[in-house]
Write a sequence for this structure.
């Protein structure tokens, strides 16, 4: 039974390839996606594996009460095949998408989200006792958007009326909602930015940009970008003996783009080794994991030797 709960935000600072295995479509190596929304996600098992693998680097500067390998086994469970099997005391749920960077005519890029993604994040935060107090947003229809930063929009005449429009990639969205809608989006963006980004001054630019340039699209329009606005890279497999392309040569790998934001639950229980010397209560396990992860750089997913998978983690608790 997990007794202590928190949420972990993952902010991508490099492309991330959390692979779903090979596919027969245009993309040879797709990323993991939720079945029901099609949004990119990180499987909880992959997050736990990445934290376990990176424990030594993450724990530098921490005072450890046990040798590193013993502490990892106590917190995460022993390796498969161990003669002393027991459950770990730490678990992660799947990380779900909160916001996605999309190229914008003004401001470089914006952070796109949708009512569905915001509501799921708000529900998760509420389940672990974190107050959000986000206002209810007006309905966003397809082709429309809500934003707080009016300088992102362009004014032009449509059907004889002056409208404000937002250009994302090759698409145009009509800015909906009056001044109150801008205030509502601004309030949500500011709260999310305060929770999701480290307090370190190094992240001030991104924290401020997120709080200013969050754009709410309809669930349908956001789903399009979540499906089609990923970073796709061609690779060539080289034969080391001949220096030429090996086999069919070219293959395509999909990555979640940098500046993406996801959220996942983190759960802690008391340690379950059955050994008195290993005993640690749920609060102690939780504090250790928070110290380990909060504001730290973690590498997850595949293609790590090419610099992929760098995320900054922020832990919030109720």
């Amino acid at each position: 039974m997990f007794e202590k709960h928190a949420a972990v935000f993952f902010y991508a600072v490099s492309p991330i390839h959390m692979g779903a295995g090979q596919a027969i479509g245009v993309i040879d190596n797709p990323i993991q996606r939720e079945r029901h929304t099609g949004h990119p996600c990180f499987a909880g098992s992959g997050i736990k594996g990445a934290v376990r693998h990176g424990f030594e680097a993450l724990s530098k500067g921490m005072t450890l009460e046990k040798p590193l390998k013993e502490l990892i086994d106590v917190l995460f469970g022993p390796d498969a095949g161990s003669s002393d099997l027991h459950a770990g005391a730490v678990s992660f749920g799947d990380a779900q998408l909160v916001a996605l960077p999309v190229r914008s005519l003004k401001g470089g890029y914006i952070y796109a989200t949708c009512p569905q993604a915001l509501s799921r994040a708000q529900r998760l935060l509420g389940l672990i006792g974190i107050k959000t107090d986000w206002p209810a947003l007006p309905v966003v229809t397809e082709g429309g958007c809500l934003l707080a930063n009016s300088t992102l929009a362009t004014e032009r005449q449509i059907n004889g009326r002056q409208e404000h429009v937002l250009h994302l990639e090759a698409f145009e969205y009509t800015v909906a909602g009056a001044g109150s809608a801008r205030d509502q989006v601004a309030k949500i963006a500011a709260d999310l930015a305060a929770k999701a980004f480290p307090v370190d001054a190094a992240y001030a630019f991104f924290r401020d940009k997120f709080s200013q340039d969050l754009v709410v699209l309809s669930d349908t329009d956001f789903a399009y970008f979540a499906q089609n606005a990923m970073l796709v890279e061609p690779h060539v497999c080289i034969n080391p003996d001949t220096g030429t392309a090996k086999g069919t040569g070219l293959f395509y790998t999909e990555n979640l783009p940098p500046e993406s934001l996801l959220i996942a639950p983190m759960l802690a229980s008391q340690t379950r080794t059955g050994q008195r010397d290993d005993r640690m209560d749920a609060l102690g396990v939780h504090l250790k994991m928070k110290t380990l992860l909060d504001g730290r750089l973690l590498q997850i997913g595949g293609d790590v030797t090419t610099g992929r998978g760098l995320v900054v983690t922020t832990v919030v608790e109720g």
Observations:
- Residues 5 and 51 are 17 Å apart (CA to CA).
- The mean pLDDT is 89.
- The helical segments are 44-53, 55-58, 68-76, 115-127, 179-196, 204-213, 219-228, 282-293.
